[in-house]
Specification:
Blueprint: H1 23-30, E1 49-50, E2 56-60, H2 65-70, H3 77-89, E3 96-100, E4 107-108, E5 118-119, H4 124-141, E6 145-149, H5 151-158, H6 164-167, E7 172-173, E8 184-188, H7 191-196, H8 200-218
Parallel strand pairs: 2-3, 2-6, 6-8
Antiparallel strand pairs: 1-3, 4-5, 7-8
Length: 237
């Protein structure tokens, strides 16, 4: 049991994020993160993966059951939906970097569901605790466009007032003091919402349409008016 002076009581990953680390070192450090209590019951930290030089970064909510077991983001059914939608929108999934706002699987058990682990959304406090990892990934990748997949990712990148139903498919500038560091953000639904939708076809088409907004932004040469050019501190991983 965690004591009163345990690092997780502070709800911040900042002490675990090494300065000047590359992606490999950052991933290794994240494996030992105790920045909030979510690490206690999970199998492992699920860090981001993909092209370290990606122009497009995709941010989801948190790992699911399969991601927690395999240690990789978006390896379940939602990941398959996302890959198909990206390709249809004109973005090569192999040329993206994908991660989650929260790196540990938060879940609960329902008596009627047996031992199955049921997804539970992270709290704003847990989002804030994991923010330093996301900020470090953004700094290293230096993406031109960040796609926020769902409400939780949007809150992590744009603040607690974000509403995906109102702002999906738009181009927004991330708060310069937040994890997105002023980058262009295109919000959309989480691909798992397609799987839950009554009309999956319409939900999927909406996801593709939003991703096309990101594809169009990537097609624009040079830094646009929505963001400042990368400063000297921004690095390509």
């Amino acid at each position: 049991m965690a004591g009163t002076n345990s690092p997780e009581d502070a709800y911040t990953a900042a002490p675990f994020v090494p300065d000047g680390a590359d992606l490999g070192a950052l991933r290794e450090a994240a494996a030992g993160c105790r920045g909030c209590p979510l690490h206690r019951d999970t199998t492992q930290t699920v860090f981001g993966a993909g092209d370290p030089g990606a122009r497009a970064m995709l941010v989801g909510e948190q790992p699911g059951d399969q991601e927690d077991r395999q240690g990789k983001p978006f390896v379940g059914p939602a990941g398959k939906v996302l890959d198909r939608a990206l390709a249809e929108a004109g973005i090569d999934p192999g040329e993206t970097y994908i991660t989650n706002a929260v790196k540990h699987f938060k879940f609960t058990h329902l008596p009627e569901r047996g031992k199955r682990r049921i997804h539970k959304p992270p709290s704003l406090r847990e989002l804030a605790a994991c923010g330093p990892w996301l900020a470090a990934e953004v700094e290293l990748i230096g993406p031109e466009v960040i796609v926020a997949l769902g409400a939780t990712a949007g809150k992590a990148l744009l603040g607690s007032s974000f509403r995906v139903t109102k702002e999906r498919g738009t181009r927004l500038a991330g708060d310069a003091s937040g994890p997105a560091r002023g980058a262009l953000i295109v919000p959309t639904i989480h691909p798992s919402a397609v799987l839950r939708a009554d009309d999956r076809k319409a939900a999927y088409e909406g996801l593709v349409a939003d991703l096309r907004i990101a594809a169009e932004a990537l097609g624009r040469a040079g830094p646009g008016p929505w963001r400042d050019p990368p400063g000297p501190g921004r690095r390509r991983g």
